[in-house]
Design brief:
- A seven-stranded antiparallel beta sheet has the order 1-7-6-5-4-3-2.
- The protein has one domain: START domain (Alpha-D-Glucose-1,6-Bisphosphate, Chain A, domain 4, 2-Layer Sandwich).
- The chain has four helices and seven strands; from the N terminus they run ααβαββββββα.
- By secondary structure, the chain is α+β, with helices and mostly antiparallel strands.
Length: 182
C-alpha cells in the first residue's frame, strides 16, 4: 500500500496548483454598444414634447410599460428615480440624469432591471422636421449584461442591441400612433 501511496503523493505535489482548480472564465473588456431609432411625426415639436416630457409618464405612451412611479426626488428634476413596471411584471429602475424642457430632451440611466444590459445611458429628444412636423430621436449607449468572452445565450451583444432596438421602436411607433391619432 505504501508503494502505491508514495508515487501518488509525489505526483500530486508536482502538479501545478492551477491545474487542480476549476477553470473560471475570465471577464473581458466590453465594447460600448449603441442604438439609435428615429421617427417622423406629423405634429408640431411642442405637441410631441407635450406627450413625452413627463419623466414619470412613460407608461402613457410606451406599450410595454404598465406603470411608472417616482421612488425618490421630484419628477422632471435631475436625480429623480422612477420605477417602471412592465406589462409582464418585470421592473426597471431608472434615474434622471438631465432634463431640458426648452431643448425638448430627457437623459436617463438604468440603475437596475430586467433588460440584458449594463451601464445604460439613454436620451430621447424631439426636434423640428424639415417637412414641418417633428423628428423624435431615441438613442442609447450600453454594454451587454455578461462580462465573459463567450457569454451565455441571451447575454451577448446581439441580444442586448436587439432588445434595446425593439424597446425604442415599439415606443416610437406607439407615440406616432397616439399623437397622429391613427
Amino acid at each position: 500500500m505504501k508503494k502505491i501511496i508514495t508515487p501518488l503523493l509525489v505526483l500530486f505535489l508536482t502538479l501545478p496548483l492551477a491545474s487542480l482548480q476549476a477553470k473560471t472564465p475570465k471577464p473581458v473588456k466590453l465594447p460600448w454598444l449603441t442604438v439609435t431609432q428615429t421617427i417622423e411625426i406629423s405634429a408640431a415639436p411642442e405637441t410631441v414634447w407635450g406627450r413625452i416630457k413627463d419623466f414619470n409618464g412613460l407608461n402613457t405612451w410606451h406599450p410595454a410599460v404598465a406603470k411608472s412611479e417616482i421612488l425618490s426626488g421630484t419628477d422632471n428634476q435631475k436625480n429623480a428615480v422612477r420605477l417602471l413596471t412592465l406589462q409582464d411584471g418585470g421592473t426597471i429602475k431608472e434615474k434622471l440624469v438631465r432634463y431640458n424642457n426648452k431643448g425638448m430632451s430627457i437623459k436617463y440611466t438604468i440603475l437596475e432591471g430586467v433588460l440584458p444590459v449594463t451601464h445604460y445611458v439613454s436620451t430621447i429628444r424631439v426636434k423640428p422636421a424639415k417637412s414641418g412636423g417633428s423628428v423624435v430621436e431615441w438613442y442609447g449607449k450600453f454594454k451587454r449584461k455578461s462580462p465573459l468572452a463567450n457569454p451565455p445565450a441571451g447575454e451577448d451583444d446581439a441580444t442586448a442591441t436587439n432588445t434595446i432596438t425593439s424597446v425604442y421602436k415599439a415606443g416610437l411607433e406607439n407615440l406616432k400612433k397616439l399623437v397622429e391619432g391613427d
